[in-house]
Design goal:
Elements (H helix, E strand, L loop, with lengths): L1 H11 L4 H8 L3 H8 L7 H11 L3 H5 L6 H10 L3 H22 L3
């Protein structure tokens, strides 16, 4: 499961196996063996990859099918800057609306 998830996340970030290998200080063949499930990264390397891609270890290890932070990151990269600003503005409006609804009268 690690290899499949690692390849997915790496590609979502627009990186090649060579890019990842260089950033981690490992060989290209090492990354390939991880993604092909022939070998597994060390615990220390898992931590580095989770921090690098801002994903949970549970998601990378296959213990969870969803990583809310990663899903949010994927969605936000699909939006333009203007759309993100509108989304944040709407979020502030909803919070204001909830507070106004719950305010004592």
């Amino acid at each position: 499961m690690i290899g499949e998830r690692l390849a997915e996340v790496r590609k979502d970030h627009g990186e090649t196996q060579a890019d990842l290998a260089e950033s981690l200080g490992v060989s290209l063949s090492t990354v390939r063996t991880w993604e092909q499930e022939k070998n597994a990264p060390s615990h220390e390397m898992l931590v580095v990859m989770c921090k690098r891609y801002r994903i949970s270890s549970d998601y990378l290890l296959g213990l969870s099918d969803v990583d809310p932070a990663y899903e949010q990151t994927k969605q936000s990269t699909a939006l333009t800057r203007e759309e993100l600003l509108k989304l944040r503005e709407y979020e502030r409006f909803l919070i204001w609306q909830r507070k106004a609804k719950n305010a004592p009268r």
